[in-house]
Write a structure and sequence with these properties.
4 copies of one chain form a homotetramer. By secondary structure, chain A is α/β, with parallel strands linked by helices. The first copy, chain A, has 11 helices and 18 strands. Chain A has a single domain, classed as 3-Layer(bba) Sandwich (Glucose Oxidase, domain 1). In chain A, helix 2 runs parallel beside helix 10. Chains in contact: A-B, A-C, A-D, B-C, B-D, C-D.
Chain lengths: 319, 319, 319, 319
């Protein structure tokens, strides 16, 4: 894996090479799957047939269950500008016993960097169009989305593949700003003895959460490790259903001129591949290393929010 | 199933027989599992070993995936007094493109009858004590619960068993106020050719959601179908891990003198069995009928809320 | 006051006469004040000069202070479909003493019938245009309003005039659906010995709150007492700054074909007159009756919400 | 004003002299007014009789109206750890026209440093007791406060006095950490030709907001200008009704051993004087300087929140 042979290489921002807007638009066309599926709202999740589900559940060996969600984060910080809310609304003193009850209220403006969440296909539009050529302004309003809502996705049960880059490289984490390229994916597949197949969920571990725990929080909009757009054609070719990671899949700063979140636009808007952001992959890294297997059953069960642009989730890996 | 031989029987409130407080307290002692597990917070989920997980995933046959959550309900009504919130916070006009983004905010005081949710073990205290003899006032405060929080539960992957009473009885639904007894569970097991085993999740379908769709909403605090406390010893004996349903498991009005939610207290506080409330079991009923199998892989993945009393969820059945 | 000579008259819906859309549009043109003021956002509040403020404060006689807000209503009901939230977030157990602190969280989607609030000029658009001919879609987006926001209004200190119709009529309340016409305003002025002048705030008491207390809540969208549009030219001629009431100023059902809230559109969109909805005028009715004076100092101090469409308020009358 | 003769003096933390816990407790006893008033919930607002109201309104000269609230702050920052929420819930696309409507939702956990708010008497307890010797744990629970709630206060109409220290001293602002003492109050009264009288509201301008605008935000918990406890006996002697400022009245760090907010405890818990935190006094400073008068009519109209610990407010000064 040539880009990663030492700390020296990782010291640079490493988000390049730069990509022009025209090159990006050509890439967008190249990976576009508009018109392919019905219902279009489910996009690439249509690839996950009952056969895939059966194969995914058949991968379970040890029965180890690993949750992938960060803790609900109610403290503001550089990576949590819209902290989630958690209020106790009954401490056994509001409703009459017996029994007495404790209740709470949760709230979140969950897109951002602080909360583990799934992005539905209505989340991102490029040049005004959502996936499948739906005009965003016609199908999304203050009442919610009439196309591409999370309620149209439902749950996903499929094979997950962990691209555990720090493990492959024998380092603690990728530095923020480090791009992951197609060749790195191929090298990781080889090193981890996995093959990304059609309908699979690809989870990229950059070591973001470990770095945050050791060094403290930073602003991921300024710098975070993630895919360079040159990795996307490979993922498209493999026919993935879901892309996720401990960042938000995009390397930042963006290498694409005038496009702040190019992997978001390619995955969701062109390919119909929902994203899973801000995962905690540390326990999964340990569990996969122990098992010596980097593929597993993955279940993602978004809340059933009609018109919603996504959902906080707690994805579950079963090894 | 003697209590259900006709519409005449179902016409009554059918929530009896009445149970005295002393009888209830004896029952509470009889099914109590305090001190049995570590970590105690996970209660009966400790029964779900990796072996159970493997067996549960091995039950998958068709690969059919069925979500069990009601839609996020933002409209107030007799069964939704604290409506959930869903606000669009970006319509592609707040943050600069490209791409443009749509974002939203969700919020819920989710205990109640309107939202599909999991109850964690800190939710219910009887005589001031939570499960495992923890004094509620010492471990729950305005900052959250330090014992029995949903973050201590994590996800559950186990075998689900659907007790589809209306299907067994050939009726549309149980009338609100109708109690389900131990003998009805046994009869349903026989009719549906399932056996509730240790570590299983038992889901009771009363037809609540179908009735609501056909006849409109009512106040389930006044009347709902659910278990009579006399069904609990059987569930305890079987060693279930989770109890859920399209109601909240308790028949209402409560047959127990001075205890408004006796099944809650027995399941959660005595037995350490979390509850899953307000499921939509209609699609699962159809899928199990079609498959001719009433057991399946069940995945429940609560949000990772430190100190939380539960979580909205979208449980997933895989047949 | 011819429309009100007896219970028989009030027994009908009394919201007429019907008004055609063309008649309404002519009325809209007739009372329009677009282009008259700078800053246009403050609309008719520009009428309230320092002189008016001085005269208003000089009206104080007894020093009696009367708040006009309903209690923050957290219970859903037919007139409170989006209940306000009130959560205790610290019960002296979250932050370290000494001293210990109690804190809370409040929230509201306050437009509607449950919360006393001020409507800013961006709240209502007619045929796509806000007050002063601003195109709504150009100045309001998911980030808020760039024209006509409540933050542009600031507080109002002026003379308030209570049109206490039930007192004039010697009845408990106007029945829901009863319209108030220009002649009724004139009769009330005479009976109460007040004259509505330029820059004044007109508060219409229909007895809504008293009726709700005695008979229980109803859905005010279905029927509420309020102004017929034929009262608006008189209010326009008088040059009022603010219109308020214990309803939302509009008689409902609307007498205007195809316009559900015609007084809202005339007052706010045509005349630049903010509205004050859902006041509790019962204590003010008693205080004015005791004082024998129906004009007073009125202070309305909306929260300073940039881009906001209004604000919950607690208006204060000083007699 | 000896403590303030130059930048050198202001360069130190200046929060002293240190005060022992015993001295503080003696001070607490010395200024205590428990048992003096009914209703006790209104505390020192009972001093504001109709006579005071009349005198306050009679102070109006120019009719200039000055709002004192900071903008509703939805961005997290060092002085806004729990940002307020503001969501547009209707952009004219949710409810049917005509007219079309724009609506929004506001929310805040408003205690803290980011939002202008009033503290009700239930907000602060010292040694477990609220004002008037009420045991906090007996009167405050998750449903709210049954004593000392903001709904018991209602609005305040009184004489406001601006202690504009930076103007007196000819400086831009007091440095964070600078204490204001009794002698400084007396010197300010002399310099500004005002006398704090019974029932008055005292507003301390430290220049906090100007400093924030010029230098950026900082964490006021670490350092802010405010009253030293040695100023409190003078305020008690004068019989003030309300204490407010552009900080939260307490100098921070606290000079009192083991008491993080000693002025809060003395004012609210001992004296029954509500506090008004985080005012924007810049416009008022300019207006009072122009008028050459530092007293004015002040109206504070908290939202009518039953059981609430305070309220966001937009206090209004009328000169």
């Amino acid at each position: 894996m040539s880009v990663f042979h030492g700390q020296a290489d990782l010291g640079g921002t490493g988000n390049g090479p730069p990509v022009s807007r025209q090159e990006f638009d050509e890439l967008f066309e190249a990976v576009r799957t508009w018109g392919r599926w019905a219902p279009a709202d489910r996009g690439a999740w249509n690839r996950v047939t009952p056969d895939h589900v059966r194969r995914a559940t058949a991968r379970v060996r040890s029965g180890t269950v690993v949750p992938l969600a960060l803790p609900w984060n109610t403290r503001s910080g550089p990576d949590n500008r819209k902290p989630a809310l958690h209020h106790m609304t009954d401490l056994g003193d509001v409703e009459a016993p017996e029994p007495s009850t404790h209740k709470d209220f949760i709230a979140a403006d969950y897109h951002g960097k602080g909360i583990t969440h799934l992005d539905a296909l209505c989340h991102v539009a490029y040049r005004g169009q959502l996936y499948d050529d739906r005009t965003a302004s016609e199908v999304v309003d203050a009442a919610g989305a009439r196309f591409g809502a999370v309620s149209a996705l439902g749950p996903l049960v499929t094979t997950g593949v962990l691209l555990d880059l720090p493990t492959v490289l024998g380092i603690g984490w990728l530095e923020p700003g480090q791009a992951v390229h197609a060749k790195d994916i191929i090298a990781a597949e080889k090193a981890l003895d996995v093959t990304i197949g059609e309908g699979d969920a690809v989870l990229l571990r950059s070591g973001h959460v470990r770095r945050r725990r050791e060094l403290g929080a930073w602003d991921p909009d300024t710098a975070s490790a993630g895919f360079h757009v040159d990795a996307v054609p490979l993922l498209a070719e493999r026919g993935i259903a879901l892309l996720g990671g401990d960042g938000d899949s995009d390397v930042r700063p963006s290498p694409v001129d005038g496009v702040h979140s190019p992997v978001h636009a390619l995955a969701m808007t062109a390919m119909g591949v929902p994203l899973l952001d801000n995962l905690d992959l540390e326990a999964l890294s340990a569990a996969t290393a122990e098992a010596g297997r980097y593929e597993f059953l993955l279940v993602v069960a978004p809340l059933n929010i009609p018109g919603g642009t996504g959902s906080p989730v707690n994805p579950v890996a079963v090894l």
